[in-house]
Amino acid sequence: MDYEVAVIGAGVMGSSAAYYLAKAGRRTILIDQFPLPHTRGSSGGHSRITRQANYGSPALTSIMFDSNKEWHRIAEQAGIDLFRPYPLVCVGPGDSTSAADKLHKMEESIRNSGFEPQILAIEEVNDKYRTSFPSNYKAVVDPSAGVLLADKCIQAFRKLYVNSGGTVLDNWPVTSVIPGDIIEIKGTRGKDIKVKNVVICPGPWLGPFLETLGLKIPVWAEKIGVFYWKIVDAKMPGFTFIDTSDADHHFYALPDVEYPGYMKLCPHVGPMINPNERDKADISGLLRQGREYVANYFPCLESNPSVMESCMYTLTPDEAFILDRHPKHKNIIFAGGFSGSGFKIAPSCGEALARMAMGLDHKLDFSSFNCSRFTQQHVRSRL
């Protein structure tokens, strides 16, 4: 046996899991198919929203709170600044049952996390943040929110991981994982690796990877347009943003952390893709949506984006993530399907994965994120 645990996938989730394993004294190897660092998965880029406002599973509230504390501890230990405080402005049409329910859940989760949400009239929002939302909109502000410096977060995890004795093996595509009491991991370069446990966090490649292990789950990848718009209103303050409107009208935004003077504002949807061929996907429709949205609600920005990039989401039917064991091979553990909103909870998820690999119980409640919630109909609808 070469190592006790192998972690496959060195994005934010895999790097987090590897760190907690090495911190606990487990001989761990962190494997990635690409040379590190890279932007070919879902963890690349410089910025992600972090918040206490939660409109998803109630279990997420404590996970988000725990992760927020851990990010600050990790930043201090690594000696790397990882966080910029910015309020989160959450808006949505108050006459939409779905949007109103999300805003109410956000308000309650902020309060349950020990912070006081701000309830603003939409006129106040438009005046303060230089927006132009219609009169039927409502707003909740999360004062605990901010921006995680994403690339530096992964740098911090890997620094602490290596300092704790962990091994990194990059540019090593895995070709197969052979289950057993001792798991064999085969790759395209060098000798096979043998371990007692494996943690699989391959991001958009999760579905195809698990299929090689005989496990079909309803998870798929989407290509998301990432657009940066020049700020033309000098009075516009820095803030993060989520529109809780339904379907194609769900947008999010971050302040000018990456490109000074340019706001990151993007639709939260995209076309389904093969992650190995993501640039074949046409996102011109997303650009049209973005232009229309900016024209309607963000007069503080130029009407056309100045920089256009892309990233990948990995989604599930209920847009909640998966964190579970293989039903037949209990020493194979995996996570994915974070639906574009998982970065902020990487510390808690990584620690949960590490504890599973060590045979320990979770500190927090992750029971609602296992695969048993999906039916075979869910699986068939995505295959």
Q: Quick one: overall form?
A: globular
Strand content: 25-35%
Give the tally of β-strands: 20
Contiguous helical run count: 9
Low-confidence stretches: 379-383
Mean pLDDT across residues: 94
Order of helices and strands: EHEEHEEHEHEEHEEEEHEEEEEHEEEHH
Q: Helix fraction? A: 25-40%
Structural class computed from helices and strand pairing: alpha+beta
Distance separating the two termini: 36 Å
Main pleated sheet: 9 strands, mixed
Taking all Cα atoms into account, the compactness measure Rg is 21 Å
Secondary-structure topology with pairs:
Elements: E1 3-8, H1 12-23, E2 28-31, E3 47-50, H2 59-78, E4 83-85, E5 88-93, H3 97-112, E6 118-120, H4 122-129, E7 137-142, E8 146-149, H5 150-163, E9 167-169, E10 174-178, E11 183-187, E12 193-200, H6 206-211, E13 220-230, E14 240-243, E15 251-254, E16 262-267, E17 272-273, H7 284-297, E18 307-315, E19 322-325, E20 332-336, H8 346-357, H9 376-381
Parallel strand pairs: 1-2, 1-12, 2-9, 5-14, 12-20
Antiparallel strand pairs: 3-8, 4-8, 5-7, 6-7, 10-11, 11-12, 13-16, 13-17, 13-18, 14-15, 15-16, 19-20
What does this structure look like?
- The chain has nine helices and 20 strands.
- With 383 residues, it is an alpha+beta fold.
- The strands form three sheets. Strands 5, 6, 7, 13, 14, 15, 16, 17 and 18 form a nine-stranded mixed sheet that branches.
- The longest helix is centred in the N-terminal third of the chain and has 20 residues.
- The chain is globular and about 65 Å long.
- The relative contact order is 0.20.
